[in-house]
Amino acid sequence: VAGNPGLQKFIFAALFPVNLLLILTSGGQLFTGNSAAVPAAIFEGKATLEDLARSWGVSYLGNVIGCVGFALATAYTGLLTGGTAELAVYTATKKCASSFGPTVVKAILCNWLVCMAVFLSGAAHDLAGKMVGIWFPISTFVAIGFEHSVANLFLLPLGMLAKAKISFFDVMFKNLIPVTIGNAIAGALIVGAGYSCKCISKVSFSKCE
């Protein structure tokens, strides 16, 4: 596996959807999912801008704490060695190498798929349906290499802990800020506003979160 980047990406894409499945089935809060659900509720007259600020702020802060904490735990347990450390360094370095515009676009495309996974999961009536609805959109964005702010909140600190040659400035301004902007655009405007305007008389997207 170490010498086969394609196989590494395939395994990562196949397993990554477990994260969203656990979050949605356990009632957790994910910033990227909330970026569509709360704006949709605003467009449907069921929430306010104050609700949006609170939801986005609290969920993002919670995601930061959880992801950074998990990265620290990974390093502390001794798992961040050898090929794992090399992969963490490569991933973090690559994520900070792109310019602002392309990173925003990759984040928009990513969260369109993530929010569609949330939508499909909410429309399903059993666990099997939720799994199918989540797996394909999430695996797709991971395999292509789109940018997800919450995933990067884990991957970038993990790379720094593995001695990647990136600075806090690189992490913030070359990745997290443009990725968060792109994720919010996709969630609020493309999925949240789009589905609320199209289907407001038929279905409430905000119920999917």
TrEMBL record:
Membrane topology (UniProt): Multi-pass membrane protein
Location of the protein in the cell: Membrane
Main location: membrane
GO function terms (MF aspect): formate transmembrane transporter activity
CC terms in the record's Gene Ontology section: plasma membrane
Alphabetically ordered keywords of this record: Membrane, Transmembrane, Transmembrane helix
Regions that span the bilayer: 12-31, 60-82, 103-122, 134-155, 176-195
The organism's place on the tree of life at top rank: Eukaryota
InterPro entries the UniProt entry points to: Aquaporin-like (IPR023271), For/NO2_transpt (IPR000292)
Family: Belongs to the FNT transporter (TC 1.A.16) family.
Protein name: Formate/nitrite transporter family protein
